[in-house]
Structure formats: structure tokens, C-alpha cells
Amino acid sequence: MQMILNAGVALHVLDTGPKDGAVVMFANSLGTDLRVWDALIAHLPADLRVVRFDKRGHGLSDCPDGPYAIEDLANDAAVIADTLGLKDITFVGLSIGGLIGHGLIAARPDLVKALVLMDTAAKIGTPEFWNDRISSMQATGIAPLAAGVMERWFAEKFRADALRVAPWQNMLSRTPLEGYLGCCAAIAGADFTETARAMTIPVLAMVGDEDGATPPELVQATAKLCGAEFHLIKDAGHLPCVEHPAQTAQLITDFLKRTA
Ligand SMILES: O=C(O)CC1=CCC(=O)O1
Predict the structure, then answer these.
(1) Best exposed site among 77, 108, 221, 224 by fewest CB in 10 Å?
(2) What is the ipTM of this complex?
(3) pLDDT given for residue 196 in this prediction
(4) Own/partner pairs for 174-179, CB < 8 Å, 24+ apart?
(5) Nearest CA to ligand 1 atom 4
(6) What is the pTM of this model?
(7) Cβ of 150 less than 6 Å from ligand 1
(8) Is 88 strand, coil or helix?
(9) pLDDT tens, position by position, for the chain (260 residues)?
(10) Cα(108) to centroid of ligand 1, in Å?
(11) Distance between CA 207 and CA 116 in Å, rounded?
């Protein structure tokens, strides 16, 4: 574990695997921290250098005052990459993590050689949708709404076992409100349609068939814009890395081999 500083904001980073291994960098979703990748990473080849981080306002990273812009979050990723000397990154972005990936490619195309889009799109929702979410969360806090969010995050089969859902609901409920709302504002302002259209690097896209946050049609539309290959994960919601870690790790491993 280490902390990397970007303009006074300390970011929690985990950098594992051989330092000379091919680099895979992971960015997680709204209301989750880097543990969302634990199960998937356990299925990846051991010779990879795996870097993951808690975006600002989440996990063990600092929570500066919001709102944030997606460019702030992409800049955090760039500073982490530069501090660690990362090159030729395959960037894996889940939901807002995918927007961070697009932002990183737009700002620092020299860093990224391939992109994996998991349950994400070039533009997620509308500014009105996110402003409504910000207003209701400001009024109630996160915890009272967290059970409803689980219906978007997980497929029906997974939700049948309350003890499997509990850690993720707790993770969401314990996210700092300022950090969560700051990231909602970043999503509201993010539109990478043109970046996606201009994509020249290889892209892999995948989505759960029961994703209630970024539905399959939305993810597939972004995949088309990027010229990406597209995979539908059965019996999965918005976090297929949690529900189907072996399958999603295999898709990434095969993609890494094809793009090596
Ligand atoms: O609504 C959710 O919690 C799902 C989600 C949307 C953007 C993101 O990162 O997660």
C-alpha cells in the first residue's frame, strides 16, 4: 500500500506484481473502493504489474471538497502513472472508471496502449439525472438509498443471498458523502463521445445483462463508437468483476494476449 500526492490530495494506491511486468491499471466505480477488483485480480496471470487506486473521495484516499471534474480524476490517474513510472498501460475502467480512462486518453494518450470498458459508456446519464441524485443524496445521505442501489449493481441471482450483498452495501453506505457527490458531479459533466469516436487503440467492452445503471444497449453503443469488441456477461449487474471474477478476468487476459 502507498499514498501518492497530487496537488495536496493523497491517493491510496496498490501496486503489485513484478515491476517489469505488462501494466494493467484499474479504476473502480462510484461508491466502491479498490477492493472491488480483489476477486478478479486473483484470476489474472501472476506476471502482470497490477496497479489500482481509490479515486478521490473514496476508500483510503483523501476526500477534498467537491464538486470534482472528470479531468481531476483523470489527472489523479496520470500522476499515479507518472510517479510509478508506468508506460504502455492497459487501463480497465468500471463505470466512472471508464470515464476516467477516456479522460486519461484524452489528456495523456502517451500513457495508454489499450482500454477495457466494463459497464460504462462515453456518457452516462444526463446532467439532470445526476443533479437529481445529488439533491436526494444531499437530503438523506447515502445509507438510506443504498439498498435500492444494490438492485442496479447486482443481478437477481446474486441478490438472493443477502450476505453476499452486505459487504458492498456497507462499502457504499460508508463512502464519504462529499466524495460520492463530487464524483456524481464529475459524471454529470463528462461526455467522451468524440474521444470514443476518435479512438485508435484496441478496446474491449463488456457489460452485465442485468446492469441497471449502464444497460447493455448503452455500453454496446459506446463499444461501436470505439470499434471495440463487445461481450455480454450473463447473470450479472453493474459489477461483473464481483459476480463473475473468473469470467471477466479471462476476457481481460485474452485481450492482453491479443494486444501484447
Ligand atoms: O448508480 C450507480 O451506483 C452505478 C454507477 C453509475 C456510475 C458509476 O460509477 O456507478
Answers:
(1) 224
(2) 0.95
(3) 97
(4) 175/31, 175/33, 175/57, 175/58, 175/142, 176/57, 176/58, 176/63, 177/137, 177/138, 177/141, 177/142, 178/57, 178/63, 178/65, 178/66, 179/56, 179/57, 179/58, 179/63, 179/66
(5) 213
(6) 0.98
(7) no
(8) coil
(9) 999 999 999 999 999 999 999 999 999 999 999 999 999 999 999 999 999 999 999 999 999 999 999 999 999 999 999 999 999 999 999 999 999 999 999 999 999 999 999 999 999 999 999 999 999 999 999 999 999 999 999 999 999 999 999 999 999 999 999 999 999 999 999 999 999 999 999 999 999 999 999 999 999 999 999 999 999 999 999 999 999 999 999 999 999 999 99
(10) 25
(11) 11
- Cell readout for 23 is 501494466
For ligand 1, pick from 94, 95, 165, 168 the residue to mutate: most ligand atoms within 8 Å of CB.
95
The whole-angstrom separation of Cα 254 and Cα 238 is: 21
Ligand 1 pocket residue status of 187, Cβ below 6 Å: yes
Per domain, the residue ranges of the chain are 2-258
Residue nearest to atom 1 of ligand 1 (CA): 213
Is the CB of residue 56 less than 8 Å from the CB of residue 122?
no
Closest CA to 70 of 194, 191, 218, 222: 191
Q: Rounded to an integer, what distance in angstroms lies between the CA atom of residue 103 and that of residue 95? A: 13
Q: Give me 33's grid cell.
A: 473502493
How many other β-carbons are positioned within 10 Å of the β-carbon of residue 63?
18
Distance 30 CA to ligand 1 centre (A): 5
CATH placement of domain 2-258: 3.40.50.1820
Q: Is the CB of 183 under 6 A from ligand 1?
A: no
